[in-house]
Structure formats: C-alpha cells, structure tokens
Design a protein that fits this description.
single chain; alpha/beta; Arc Repressor Mutant, subunit A; Nucleotidyltransferase, domain 5; 5-stranded mixed β-sheet; globular
Amino acid sequence: MKTGDQTLVKQINKSIVLSTIEKKSPISRAQISKETGLNKATVSNLVSDLIADELVNELGQGQSSGGRKPVMLYFNTHAGYAIGLDLGVNYILAVLTELSGEIVEEISVPLSGKDAEHVIQTLSSLVSTLIGKAPQSPYGVVGIGIGAPGIVDPEGHILFTPYLELSEVNLKQILEEKFNIPTVIDNEANTGALGEHLYGAGKNAINLIYVSVGIGIGTGIIMNGQLYKGATGISGEMGHLTIEVNGRKCSCGNRGCWELYASESALLKEAKKMELFKKDDSITLESIESEAKKGNKDVLRLLHSIGEYNGIGLANIINTFNPDMLIIGNRMARFENWITNPIKSVLDERLSSFHRNSVNLKISSLGKYSNALGASAIVSSRFLDINRVEVI
Ligand SMILES: [Zn+2]
C-alpha cells in the first residue's frame, strides 16, 4: 500500500470513529470497535488523535458487566460553532449553533430592501455579531451556511432569485473574503429538509420530502437518507407543477402553477378580496390567523381551500416519489390547525391506498428554525468531514 493510501484509510477510519462517537455518545472504545468493525488498537489510536484534536472528550465511567469500568467518550459539541442564516424574502433569521445543532444565540431582523448591497450589509452585520458572541472554542466559527430563496448551483452561487436582487451576485465569495470562514449557500427548501431530517419531524424518515410553503413553494428531497439535488443541483422546483391547465399565468413562463394556488402569496391575494381585509393594505398572516381563531367563516373557508390546493400538489409528489414522510414547513405551517384536515381528505380521495398508506404527513416541528438549522448543519458536517466518508 502506498503512503498516500494509508493516510486516506486513516482519515476515513478516523472520520468513521468520530461519526460513531457523535451519534452514539457516551460510548466506550470497546463499543466503538464493535460498532465499526475496526480492531481495538486502531480505535484506541484514532481516539487518542481525536482527543488531541479536541473533538472528543473522555468523561466519567460507564456501565460494565464486570471488571474495570470503561472510560466513556463524548463528542465535544463545543469544539467549534456554526452560523446558519435563513435568508427570507423580507427577513433574515441568524443562529449560532454548537456542532450538534443546539442553538446558542439567535437574531432575527426584517429586510427592508431587496437590493444586493442592503442584503449583503445586513447578512454581514448579523454574521459579525454572532462571531462576536461565539464562546471561546478550539476551532471558533467553522462555517457560515445560508438557505436562500432561489436557484442555487452546486458551487453555492445564486443563479436566480425572484424576490431579492441577488442573481449572479457571488455572495459566497463576498462573505468568505470578508470573514475568512468557509461559506455554503443552498436553496432554502434543501436546507429546511436537512434541518427537519437531522433535528426535527423527519429524524426517522429515510425517504422524505420537505415542502416549503412560503411566498412560493419549493421542495427539498431526501432519498435514502441523502439530499437529492439533481444533475445541476436545482431539482425540487415543484411549486411549478401544473395543477390548472388553463390557469393563471406564472412568472416562470408556465400557467396554472401549484404555488399560485397554495402558497402564502395565494392566501394573501385571496384574503385581500374579502370585505374584511379590503381596506387593509398591510394584511399579514398574523391577522389572517387571528381571524381564523375567532372562527371567521370566510377566513376558515379560504384556509380550507388553500389546504385542498396544498393536498393536490402533495398527491402529485406522493405519486412520483413514494416517500415515507412529507413535511410541510415554512410559513404555511402556522396554519396547521386549519389546513391539515383538507390536505388529508384530498390525499384520501385522490391517492391509491398503496400510496396513501405508506406516507406519513407531518408539519415541521422546528417551525421557523428548519432552514437556519439545516444551513448550520451543512457547515458543521463539512467541518467534521463526515459527508466525504459516507459518499465513499
Ligand atoms: Zn410557475
């Protein structure tokens, strides 16, 4: 074996041991050896390396069936911190997390403009603040992850965003040059899917579709436990599924797109036609929710219809992917109490029992954090180099 190969094998094994400790901690050296199939001497050497790297701690003593009690190993979730940014259409939510995804600090600010300069300036100031708040740690802030509303290529360049003037702006490069910290940008539905898969409602799902219903609709697809991104990284634009043949014209060039009937924009547009909201220029989701809570019949009827339209698109997705779980996230999730039943009735009515029975419909459990947490998870796992090993 060449030296290069040996180094690679060692790196891979080290990454496997770290990943095992991360997932199963507290765990003993003997248990790692059993889990991974690596011999005890190898595990011992790699664990020593990981302790020297400050990625693993030895603490206390575990249970033993007899003899000397084993020393237990813990993943050092404080070895570094990650920043996750949910770049919304009119807000930015920024979180600072431990390597395990635990939120340490969060800041949310409204975005008052769409121009690149304003967005970059707001993002930068949030990142600076969070870097300043990060506790002392061996590796400091290990990455900046951004979930953005738009089409993002595999290199993290925003190719197109219909809502912010960031198309063709090399946001990744700008932030990396400014902070000298690795930065990753992905579509918000992909980061949302990862967030829910790692920390939220989708923890036990293997084939999961996360449907981000906000101003538009996007989907993050997790197949066999891995994010599926398509040939050029831009799959999941299911908001533009045609659901009405001669329907409304969409900015994408098509007609009758799903998001024109089932998104937050559709909800607001229809609500504005109501007598109640006609004079209200600043109609918000909050005001719609408060009317729904009061039992306003028109609002309830509208939410029912939005729920049904959501169900129609979801039925198409279920027929295509046969996922074991569908998670509805982003801002439509707040209407859970009013949209869940109409969605379920549409699915019951329109799907074969084979498709219907195999899918579990859930509402995002991380709420407004799915996107930001998924974005921070991408950079934490890049830092821990776990993805590379799973690919091999
Ligand atoms: Zn469209």
